[in-house]
Amino acid sequence: MIRLTIAAAMLASAAPVLAETHSVTPGDGAQERLQEALIMAKPGDEIVLAAGRYSLTDGLSLDVDGVTIRGAGMDGTVLDFTTQKGAGEGLLVTSDNVTLRDFALENPKGDGIKSKGADNIIYHRIRVTWTNGPAPTNGAYGIYPVESDGVLVDGAKVSGASDAGIYVGQSNHITVRNSIAEANVAGIEIENSRNALVEHNVATRNTGGILIFDLPGLPVMGGGNVIVANNLVVANDTPNFAPPGNIVAGVRRGTGIMVMANDRVLVEDNILSGNPTAPIMIISYTQAFTDPRYDPFPRNVTVGANLIANGGYDPQLESAEQLLAAFGGELPPLLWDGLGNPTSALYVAPGTKGWTLGLTEQGKGLTGAQPAPLTNVPAPVEIFYREGIGAPPALLERLGG
Amino acid sequence: MKHFAWVACAALAFSGAMVARATPPRSVNEVAITDAAMPRLLSEYGFFTDAPAQLPGKGVTPYRLNTPLFSDGAEKLRFVYVPTGSMARANGENLLDLPVGSALIKTFAFQQDGKRRLIETRVLLHRADGWLALPYLWNDEQTEARLAIAGARLDLVTPKGEAISYRVPNKNQCKECHGLNGVVTPIGPKARNLSRDWLAAMVDAGHLDKLPQDVDQLPVWEDRESANLTAAARAYLDVNCAHCHRPGATASNSGLDLRWEQQDPHAIGIGKRPVAAGRGAGGNLFDIVPGAPDKSIIAYRMSTTEPGVAMPEIGKETVDSDGLAIVRKWIEEMAP
């Protein structure tokens, strides 16, 4: 018995300082109380946001590693930024190993939650909503991890973003899954990022459902190694409401899954329906550029078997009527712009019908387009190499499986 | 010459205060600067012999920047403290290399009812584990400033007569501007933005090891109309934007690099498309369109106070019309 007590005491003394829980409630002074908790937290601490509506006037920020912010559910705890007066986002995270879960943000003036240089971050059951519906005056991104290694977005729900609902930029080892992106310009966008897995999401009522982009002139370049699988991409038919000037302002209403200028992308086992311009679109970067590091063409893009219905029936394209007439009333579900290496830009599983714009020069828009059915595209020749794609296993374990 | 007179003036005021009080100036509490704690009160540091009057204590030196950061027209009183027995080291045109134990102190004040009202004092403390930025909020009685790590908002009127809800940044927001490669760093006291005379006086006083090279490059803001236009505009952008818009800082992902030394036209925004500007682009396609300020995103974002559009994102409740004018003029006269 005595031995046991001693052993217990030794155990206790060897244990690290216990993580603390800081509870925050809505009401008067919520801005200061919540921000103070975010600042005073120590690594490993948990900040618990009681249910209710928090009226906030300024952006919040977290800069402590290993902190969890936990609400009482994405419908229970609401951080309301309707009266926000300053800052570029609702919540900014700049520390590593942070878990954000079970709360919502409404009407942030800029972006919803931005995490920058925040490695191994989890967004779990986070909701970001612009409650007035799609509008160019809404903020740009709902969930916005950037320049980070290790990103897991799980069970999130974003609607109304005037750019992308869930946007992962200039990052590595990413999983976006089980999430709903509705009524944004772009539902889910992976940009200048590597090793991303986008699976089991619903993208609907966006202008474009899921976009895999690579752009020139950014600090992090060379997007690729991306899997888009088992997503429900339906009825993405909201007219583009992005403010002009942004790359997504060029996305045509009714785009399902779009891959632009990436290397090694697999699009497989998705269900696509009601995407009236093109269920799947594989294209080059459309504009002129000077960045010598940049490859504007799609490379090694594999379109496997997908379940596709009701696509390409109302394309937002020049000469749409002639195109529809030429293709018998509905465009084939896969659209390629025709640019890139004809033998390795694109691999398409047998049975997927496509067409090409027949472009011959990058950066010239649709000038010189010679639309034609897609023929002689090679079929996938090897198993897509998946090792290292997706968020690190430790992130999935932190979430509890 | 102007700077020298200014420093001399401050020194006079300081010695005058000493004589008037006939007491030795309180010395700075160096432990408060270097200790792990966050002092709750500004007075604990002992930076001032008379804090309400902003009269610095022994070893605390006032300074100004040639081109300063705009903060809603606040009067800003800047001081540097270098600890006893050590000195700052010159580092070319860049930031003075301030030793551990140093502090940078900046008080923000506005006029109210014909008197100067102190709003906040921000301190940057150089500790063994790096720099720490803390904001202190002055009380209504103007007798003491108290640590406000969560920041605050208060209503006041700017020198231009604009009624604003002034934002005192929280501790994390300090890092939004002062963060570089993940750590807090000073921004202001770069040799290129400090007067030669002031630097020479720092050397004479034993606070600085030698006069840095390439000092005093940025034009004095009040003299901007007679200065080289490009220099005036680039100085403004360097001081007001480049702490975020540079590699390793808060807005690095934009790819926009507005540092004084950046010479690549695309990197400073000429013909550069936005990345994550959202509605901040205001319908424009490029950060800078030579000859066309009305089509340039930089000018658009400077011209508004709307959250989510306005630049800078924090520390600004009003448009800096003087800064906007010089940047617009620079873009206007830029050859296409």
Helix and strand topology:
The complex is a heterodimer of chains A (401) and B (336).
Chain A: H1 2-14, E1 21-24, H2 30-40, E2 46-49, E3 52-55, E4 60-62, E5 68-70, E6 77-80, E7 89-93, E8 99-106, E9 111-116, E10 121-129, E11 141-146, E12 149-154, E13 157-159, E14 164-169, E15 172-177, E16 180-182, E17 186-191, E18 194-199, E19 202-204, E20 208-213, E21 224-229, E22 232-234, E23 255-260, E24 263-268, E25 271-275, E26 278-283, E27 299-303, E28 307-311, H3 320-326, E29 334-336, E30 346-348, E31 354-356, E32 372-373, H4 393-398
Parallel strand pairs in A: 1-2, 2-5, 3-6, 4-7, 5-8, 6-8, 7-9, 8-10, 9-11, 10-12, 10-13, 11-14, 12-15, 13-16, 14-17, 15-18, 16-19, 17-20, 18-21, 19-22, 20-23, 21-24, 22-25, 23-26, 24-27, 25-28, 26-29, 27-30, 29-31
Antiparallel strand pairs in A: 31-32
Chain B: H1 2-21, H2 30-34, E1 48-50, E2 55-56, E3 60-63, E4 75-81, E5 103-112, E6 115-127, E7 130-138, E8 145-147, E9 152-157, E10 163-168, H3 171-178, E11 179-180, E12 183-184, H4 196-204, H5 229-240, H6 297-302, H7 321-332
Antiparallel strand pairs in B: 1-2, 3-4, 4-5, 5-6, 6-7, 7-8, 9-10, 11-12
Describe it for me?
The complex is a heterodimer of chains A (401) and B (336). With 401 residues, chain A is mainly β. Chain A has one domain (111-400). Chain A has four helices and 32 strands. Chain A has helices at residues 2-14, 30-40, 320-326, 393-398, and strands spanning 21-24, 46-49, 52-55, 60-62, 68-70, 77-80, 89-93, 99-106, 111-116, 121-129, 141-146, 149-154, 157-159, 164-169, 172-177, 180-182, 186-191, 194-199, 202-204, 208-213, 224-229, 232-234, 255-260, 263-268, 271-275, 278-283, 299-303, 307-311, 334-336, 346-348, 354-356, 372-373. In chain A, the strands form two sheets. Chain A has a 20-stranded parallel β-sheet that branches. A twelve-stranded mixed β-sheet of chain A has the order 4-7-9-11-14-17-20-23-26-29-31-32. The longest helix of chain A has 13 residues, at 2-14. Chain B is an alpha+beta fold and 336 residues long. Chain B has seven helices and twelve strands. In chain B, the strands form four sheets. Chain B has a six-stranded antiparallel β-sheet, with helices on one face. In chain B, α5 (229-240) crosses α7 (321-332). Chain A: Residues 1-19 form the signal peptide. Chain A: Keywords: Repeat, Signal.
